[in-house]
Specification:
Layout (H helix, E strand, L loop, with lengths): L3 E2 L2 H21 L5 E7 L3 H16 L3 E7 L5 H13 L5 E4 L9 H7 L11 H8 L8 H12 L8 E5 L6 H10 L3 E5 L6 H5 L4 E4 L17 E4 L3 E2 L5 E2 L4 H4 L5 E2 L7 H21 L2
Parallel strand pairs: 1-11, 2-3, 2-4, 5-6, 5-7, 7-8, 8-11
Antiparallel strand pairs: 9-10
Helix pairs in contact: 1-10, 2-10, 6-7, 6-10
The chain binds guanine.
The site of guanine has 6 residues, from strand 4.
Length: 285
């Protein structure tokens, strides 16, 4: 079997058009969705991500505010800035780009963001709301994965989903979103014994381990849906995922490529969450 490619770039473009239309509607009601991004220090990858977020905001007609802080900024100064943004009426979403310098407590920073503006979906209140199936901001990469499957007409109820990786940002929440949609979920991680035994049971496999080409054809069953969250560089410096695309795409039913798979969905869902926050702020007026 040769897998059908799930084209994240195309699906993201379609979703962005829908979001842009909703932004126009909100603007006609006097609200421009606004996203504040705080970047601390000069991590090169973070700078690139942040630039892409600003660009996406502009393309969709949203207001974007970039706040750059020096690597040496104190935790107190950062918390004071977040407090100011929590109160700012033109800002509907606040994102603090991670990782933060070591002298700053990441958990404390995330918890200082108003849950009503937590468009990353990292605040424990939003995580708790997601776990109990309540209205919440869903973390962007996991949410983007669910949209990719929905747009590809892949059903989830009753399927066995195996998530490889257990990060707070991707692995843990994506398993929860699948569970919310009635899948049977198995989590695998670095201490899992006999990984292959588990992954071979998967109707849907999500690879989020951060190791280039880690998942091979022998890990998957014929026709499985394979979602690759990895963004790595191989020995030749070429962008690659956590899945060995060349061999797995010969066996899978569906597969997301890297690039142009899950990646474009992350910023798209951030834009969606910012729109949602702005719309909900209107309802609270
Ligand atoms: N760093 C890498 N990915 C993310 C993300 O999705 N949100 C934030 N805030 N920081 C990140």
């Amino acid at each position: 079997m040769t897998a059908q490619i799930i084209n994240g770039k195309e699906i993201a473009a379609k979703k962005r058009l829908e979001i842009a239309e909703e932004v126009e509607k909100l603007k006609s009601q006097g609200i421009t969705p606004g996203l504040a991004v705080i970047l601390v220090g000069n991590n090169h990858a973070s700078q690139t991500y942040v630039k892409n977020k600003e660009k996406a905001c502009k393309e969709l007609g949203m207001y974007s505010l970039l706040i750059e802080m020096l690597e040496e900024v104190s935790e107190g100064e950062l918390l004071a800035k977040i407090e100011e943004l929590n109160e700012a009426t033109e800002i509907h979403g606040i994102l603090v780009q991670l990782p933060l310098p070591k002298h700053i407590d990441e958990k404390k920073v995330i918890e200082s963001i108003s849950p009503l503006k937590d468009v990353d979906g990292f605040h424990p209140i939003n995580i708790g709301r997601m776990m109990t199936g309540q209205n919440a901001f869903l973390p962007c990469t996991p949410y983007g994965i669910m949209v990719l499957l929905e747009e590809s007409d892949i059903s989830i109820s009753g399927k066995h989903v195996v998530v490889v990786g257990r990060s707070n940002i991707v692995g843990k929440p994506v398993g929860q979103l699948f569970l919310n949609q009635h899948a049977t979920v198995t989590y695998c991680h670095s201490r899992t014994k006999d990984l292959k035994f588990h992954t071979n049971q998967a109707d849907i496999i999500v690879a989020a381990v951060g190791i280039p080409n880690f998942i091979k054809a022998e890990h998957i069953k014929d026709g499985a849906v394979v979602i690759d969250v990895g963004i790595n560089r191989n020995e030749a410096g070429k962008l690659c995922g956590d899945v060995d695309f060349d061999e797995v795409s010969e066996k899978a039913g569906y597969i997301t490529p890297v690039p142009k798979g899950v990646g474009p969905m992350t910023i798209t869902m951030l834009m969606y969450n910012t729109l949602k926050s702005a719309a909900e702020s209107l309802n609270r007026k």
